[in-house]
């Protein structure tokens, strides 16, 4: 029965994530907000909601480290997806063709991840009520980042933005918004079933208590990002695909601060094991590498991968090995 639940829930998530990309693209075209902004903010938030729910559930059970590992580890996997994108679409060179405007969203993601790792280590005891001042700074930082991205979308580098042509058959704005909301609701409802069934399968197969088992379960929560990103790239919306990944890293850090609202026993960031800073730093390094790859636009390929995408993939795997050696589960 657990295998049936896993397969059915995975199928629903794949379908919902594909629709999320399609309706998100329609919203970007119909509203004129642009694929980059919609990917960074709207789709990133929607695909990250399952991780937020997993985090809140972990906090309610007193598992602060599980919550932190879920979000910080998701940052690592999101950047590894860039290497997967380059492998799947090896003729398009995704990082090179993406808009340079991703430099802002990537830089903001680096800033927020850096803030989170700093606050975990600094252990600043300032609070407002039961909520830590560090968490409030992180949440405020995300809201300011959204505002900057919104302004940058319209201002850019001083060059007037051009309206993207709307292809025939594109859903109306009303249908796109309704479909996007429905797909998001499906992700939020079904993902916990997928996570629970994958955890049970890990136990049944004997992997449940191992690093591999817990890592695989964590990767399952990133399935919406994986499917949505690949679907967006297949639609030709490369900016939306990459924006989703940078935006997910931004939203993950916002969710980490948001988790403090449901942790009433004190400062949430103050009870996270400092060892998890290593997970945060690996996510920071991988995000910075993706940002550099977007800026320098390397021409050279190594086998089927661009040099920057290959480096991201190698560092991701090496990072997992380091975490395995330290006994830390992302």
From TrEMBL:
Primary location group: membrane
Record-annotated membrane-spanning stretches: 6-24, 36-59, 71-89, 101-122, 128-149, 170-195, 201-220, 241-263, 275-295, 307-324
Gene3D superfamilies per the UniProt record, alphabetical: NCX, central ion-binding region
Membrane topology: Multi-pass membrane protein
Pfam families cross-referenced by the UniProt entry: Na_Ca_ex
UniProt superkingdom: Bacteria
InterPro entries attached to this UniProt entry: K/Na/Ca-exchanger, NaCa_Exmemb, NCX_ion-bd_dom_sf
Location within or outside the cell: Membrane
Keywords: Membrane, Transmembrane, Transmembrane helix
Residue ranges of every copy of the Sodium/calcium exchanger membrane region domain listed in the record: 2-146, 176-322
Protein's name according to its UniProt entry: Sodium/calcium exchanger membrane region domain-containing protein
Taxonomic source organism: Thermanaerothrix solaris
Lineage start: Bacteria, Bacillati, Chloroflexota, Anaerolineae, Anaerolineales
């Amino acid at each position: 029965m657990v295998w049936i639940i896993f397969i059915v829930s995975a199928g629903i998530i794949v379908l919902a994530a594909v629709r999320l990309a399609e309706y998100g693209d329609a919203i970007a075209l119909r509203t004129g907000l642009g694929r980059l902004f919609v990917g960074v903010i709207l789709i990133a938030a929607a695909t990250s909601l399952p991780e937020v729910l997993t985090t809140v559930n972990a906090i309610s059970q007193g598992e602060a480290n599980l919550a932190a590992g879920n979000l910080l580890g998701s940052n690592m996997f999101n950047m590894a997806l860039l290497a997967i994108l380059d492998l799947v679409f090896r003729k398009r060179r995704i990082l090179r063709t993406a808009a340079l405007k991703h430099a802002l969203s990537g830089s903001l993601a680096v800033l927020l991840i850096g803030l989170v790792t700093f606050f975990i280590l600094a252990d600043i005891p300032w609070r407002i009520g039961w909520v830590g001042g560090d968490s409030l700074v992180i949440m405020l930082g995300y809201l300011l980042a959204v505002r900057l991205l919104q302004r940058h979308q319209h201002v850019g580098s001083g060059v007037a933005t051009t309206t993207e042509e709307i292809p025939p058959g594109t859903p109306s704005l009303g249908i796109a918004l309704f479909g996007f909301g429905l797909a998001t609701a499906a992700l939020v409802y079904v993902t916990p079933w997928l996570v629970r069934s994958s955890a049970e399968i890990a136990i049944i197969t004997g992997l449940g208590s191992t690093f591999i088992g817990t890592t695989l379960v964590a990767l399952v929560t990133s399935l919406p990002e994986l499917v949505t990103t690949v679907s967006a790239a297949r639609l030709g919306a490369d900016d939306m695909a990459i924006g989703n990944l940078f935006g997910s890293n931004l939203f993950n850090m916002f969710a980490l601060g948001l988790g403090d609202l449901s942790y009433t026993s004190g400062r949430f960031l103050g009870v996270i094991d400092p060892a998890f800073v290593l997970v945060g730093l690996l996510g920071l390094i991988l995000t910075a590498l993706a940002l550099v790859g977007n800026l320098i636009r390397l021409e050279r390929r190594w086998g089927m991968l661009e040099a920057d995408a290959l480096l991201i993939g190698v560092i991701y795997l090496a990072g997992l090995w380091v975490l395995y050696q330290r006994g830390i589960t992302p």
